[in-house]
Write a structure and sequence with these properties.
The protein is of the alpha/beta class. Helices cover about 45% and strands about 15% of the residues.
């Protein structure tokens, strides 16, 4: 792959996916997104991987979409390119994903971070949806996920003015999980990934699916979905191992089955 680096065994049961267009601040061109989609699909099917960490570099997670690829396109061109089908596939990743963000996470970069399930940020991180400044608007979930994360008023301000927020503001608003010094942002993301990787991968996938469903439906339907996944967990060997380990006062040995 040309624009991303994938390390499936970066740590036990943890894969690292690094965006790799440093000269362009990891701008998300069509090829990078296609590579990312294929990598995540492969990692999702890899039984040795339980958690996926996505990162960029200290200067930028991703500074947005590649505007040069879109500047001369018509509405019909964009419809035919269908770039958002790639995003739809990324959203379907079943395993927990953590974004390790330093520097710019703007436009598509902010949207990609929000597509992940958790975000660890360095003190230098900046988040924003500045598409309004070039005559368009967010198109990969920025108006939807950002609003659900930080609320209508703050989302409106960011989307309609293009303003950035820093890491401390993002934490205060509920957009991210934690802020750490820049030299620790990846190791902190790995620490969180390690904690999750200790859990049953079956239960983790079911729990992730249930939490995400809460944003897509009303409470009664969400509760019904949650209960079905709760019952489904009892079909796994991990459930039996986890409860038996609790009774025997030992650490469980999950197999993801």
């Amino acid at each position: 792959m040309e624009f991303i680096n994938v390390t499936p065994d970066y740590k036990p049961h943890i894969a690292l996916v690094q965006l790799n267009r440093p000269k362009e601040l990891n701008a998300l061109n069509l090829q990078l997104m296609q590579e990312l989609k294929e990598a995540l699909k492969s990692l999702d099917q890899d039984e040795t991987v339980r958690v996926i960490v996505i990162t960029g570099n200290e200067r930028a997670f991703a500074a947005g979409a590649d505007i040069k690829q879109m500047a001369d396109k018509s509405a019909i061109d964009m419809l035919k390119i269908d770039q958002f089908s790639t995003w739809d596939q990324i959203k379907k990743t079943r395993k927990p994903m953590i974004a390790a963000v330093s520097g710019f996470a703007l436009g598509g970069g902010c949207e990609l971070a929000m597509t992940c399930d958790m975000i660890i940020a360095s003190e230098t991180a900046q988040f924003g949806q500045p598409e309004i400044k070039i005559g368009v608007m967010p198109g990969a979930g920025g108006t939807q996920r950002l609003t659900k994360a930080i609320g209508k008023a703050r989302s409106m301000e960011m989307v309609l003015t293009g303003k950035f927020i820093n890491a401390d503001e993002a934490l205060q608003y509920g957009l991210i999980n934690k802020v750490v010094p820049v030299e620790l942002y990846l190791s902190e993301a790995m620490h969180l990934a390690t904690e999750i990787a200790k859990m049953s991968p079956v239960a983790a996938m079911l729990a992730k699916e249930s939490v995400n469903r809460s944003f897509e439906t009303h409470l009664d339907e969400g509760l019904h979905f949650e209960r079905k996944n709760f019952y489904l967990a009892f079909a796994s060997e991990d459930q039996s191992e986890g409860m038996q380990a609790f009774i025997e006062k030992r650490n469980p040995d999950y197999k993801g089955k």
